[in-house]
C-alpha cells in the first residue's frame, strides 16, 4: 500500500513537472500575441465614458472566460479524435495573424490624414451628442470586443495545443486550462490598468500642496498624461510586429523545407566572427517576419479579389 502511494505521488509529481515545463513553453509562445491583444482590447473602450471603462473591460473579460470555456474542450477533442488537424489549424491561425497584421499596416499607410481626422471628429461628435444612448454603445462595443477576443483566444489555445500535442490527456487539460486562465486574467488586468492610467496621471497632476512630495506627484502625473498616448502607440506597434513574428513563425514551422532553409541560414550566420551568436538569434526572427509580411499580403489580396468579385456579380 505504501509502495503504491509513493508510486502515485511520484506519478503526480512527474505530471506536475511536465505541466510546469509545458506551461512555460506555451506561455513563451503565446505571450507574443498579447501585445496586439492588449492594444486591441484597450482600444475597444474608446468612446466609452470614463466612469464606465472598467465595467466594460470586466464585461469583455467575462466574455473572454466564456470563449475559453468553449475553446479548451474543443481543442482537447481535436487533439484526441483528429490530432492530424492540429497543424492545419495552426497554419490557418498563423495565416490569419499575418493577414490581420498586414491589414492594419496597409490601413496605416494607405489611409490619408484627412480620413483619420474625420474618424476622430466623428468620435468626438458621438461623445458630445446628448441623443446617443451610451448603454447601446457599450453593448455594441462589448459584443464586438468579445468577438475579437474569440479569435485571439482561439489563436492562443491553438498555439498552446500545438505545444502540448502528444502529451497525456491530463497534462494537456491542465496546461490549456492554466494558460487560458492566466492569459485572460493577465490581459484584462493590464487592459484595466492601461485604460485608467490617464485618470491616475490626472489625479496626481491635480494634487494640491507646495512641499516636495506634492510637486513630485504633480510632475509625475503630467509625465504619465504625456506618456499615455505613446504607450498605446507603442503597444500597437509591438503587437503588429508580434503578429508577423508569431504568424510567420507558425507558417515556417509548418512548411518543412522552408524551416530547414531558415535553420541552415541561421547556422551560416552563426559562423560570422564576433556577431555570430546575435545573427543566429536574429536571422530566424527576420525571416519569420518576412514570411509573415508576404503571407499577410497574399491573404489580403485574395480576400480583396473575392470581395470585388462578389460585389461585381
What does this entry show, briefly?
The protein is mainly alpha-helical and 313 residues long.
How many β-strands, per DSSP? Answer: 0
Q: Shape, please?
A: globular
Largest sheet: none
Structural class computed from helices and strand pairing: mainly alpha
Helix-strand pattern: HHHHHHHHH
Distance between the termini: 75 Å
Mean pLDDT: 74
Return Rg in Å.
23 Å
**How many domains, in number, for the residues?**
1
Helix content: over 70%
Number of helices: 9
- Contiguous uncertain segments of 5+ residues: 1-27, 29-33
How much β-strand is present in the residues? under 5%
Protein architecture, described:
By secondary structure, the chain is mainly alpha-helical. It has one domain (2-312). It is built from 9 helices and no strands. The model is unreliable at 1-27 and 29-33 (pLDDT under 50).
Amino acid at each position: 500500500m505504501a509502495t503504491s502511494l509513493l508510486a502515485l505521488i511520484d506519478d503526480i509529481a512527474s505530471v506536475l513537472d511536465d505541466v510546469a515545463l509545458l506551461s512555460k513553453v506555451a506561455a513563451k509562445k503565446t505571450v507574443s500575441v498579447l501585445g496586439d491583444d492588449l492594444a486591441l482590447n484597450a482600444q475597444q473602450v474608446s468612446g466609452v465614458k470614463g466612469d464606465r471603462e472598467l465595467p466594460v473591460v470586466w464585461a469583455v473579460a467575462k466574455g473572454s472566460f466564456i470563449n475559453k470555456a468553449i475553446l479548451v474542450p474543443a481543442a482537447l477533442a481535436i487533439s484526441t479524435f483528429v490530432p492530424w488537424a492540429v497543424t492545419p489549424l495552426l497554419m490557418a491561425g498563423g495565416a490569419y495573424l499575418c493577414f490581420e497584421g498586414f491589414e492594419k499596416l496597409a490601413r496605416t499607410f494607405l489611409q490619408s490624414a484627412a480620413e483619420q481626422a474625420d474618424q476622430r471628429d466623428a468620435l468626438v461628435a458621438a461623445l458630445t451628442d446628448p441623443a446617443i444612448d451610451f448603454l447601446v454603445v457599450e453593448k455594441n462595443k462589448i459584443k464586438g470586443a468579445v468577438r475579437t477576443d474569440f479569435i485571439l483566444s482561439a489563436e492562443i489555445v491553438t498555439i498552446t495545443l500545438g505545444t502540448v500535442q502528444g502529451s497525456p490527456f491530463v497534462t494537456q487539460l491542465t496546461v490549456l486550462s492554466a494558460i487560458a486562465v492566466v492569459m485572460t486574467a493577465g490581459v484584462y488586468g493590464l487592459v484595466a490598468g492601461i485604460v485608467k492610467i490617464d485618470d491616475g496621471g490626472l489625479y496626481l497632476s491635480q494634487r494640491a500642496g507646495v512641499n516636495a512630495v506634492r510637486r513630485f506627484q504633480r510632475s509625475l502625473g503630467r509625465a504619465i498624461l504625456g506618456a499615455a498616448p505613446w504607450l498605446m502607440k507603442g503597444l500597437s506597434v509591438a503587437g503588429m510586429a508580434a503578429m508577423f513574428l508569431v504568424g510567420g513563425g507558425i507558417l515556417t514551422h509548418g512548411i518543412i523545407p522552408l524551416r530547414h532553409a531558415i535553420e541552415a541560414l541561421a547556422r551560416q550566420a552563426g559562423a560570422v566572427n564576433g556577431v555570430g551568436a546575435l545573427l543566429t538569434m536574429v536571422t530566424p526572427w527576420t525571416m519569420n517576419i518576412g514570411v509573415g509580411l508576404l503571407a499577410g499580403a497574399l491573404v489580403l489580396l485574395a480576400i480583396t479579389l473575392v470581395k470585388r468579385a462578389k460585389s461585381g456579380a
